TrEMBL record:
One of its GO terms (cellular component) is cytoplasm. This is Phosphocarrier protein HPr. Residues 1-89 form the HPr domain. It is found in: Cytoplasm. One of its GO terms (biological process) is phosphoenolpyruvate-dependent sugar phosphotransferase system. Keywords: Cytoplasm, Phosphotransferase system. General (non sugar-specific) component of the phosphoenolpyruvate-dependent sugar phosphotransferase system (sugar PTS). This major carbohydrate active-transport system catalyzes the phosphorylation of incoming sugar substrates concomitantly with their translocation across the cell membrane. The phosphoryl group from phosphoenolpyruvate (PEP) is transferred to the phosphoryl carrier protein HPr by enzyme I. Phospho-HPr then transfers it to the PTS EIIA domain. It comes from the Bacteria. The lineage of its organism: Bacteria, Bacillati, Actinomycetota, Actinomycetes, Kitasatosporales. InterPro entries: HPr, HPr-like, HPr-like_sf, PTS_HPr_His_P_site.
Amino acid sequence: MPQLQVTVGSASGLHARPASLLVQAAARQTARVTLARPGQTAVDTRSLLSVLALAAKQGEELELTAVGEDADQALAELAALITEDHDAPAAR
């Protein structure tokens, strides 16, 4: 089961906009992907409320784990969304 450490990139953390983009991208994946703080219970990346409940802040390290077909591809795509600063002027 592939796993990847990612750092939250958005200045305001994993708030509504980046969380929504993450959930939408996760819903398109064949693999099931979860997100968690290291050592804590993982949440389904397809659940907006669960992702928002993490209240992840900029610079915080999180673990992405994928199970299923195209797991590595799913991790790469979702990791890119988490690490991007969606609050930067060019991202809007």
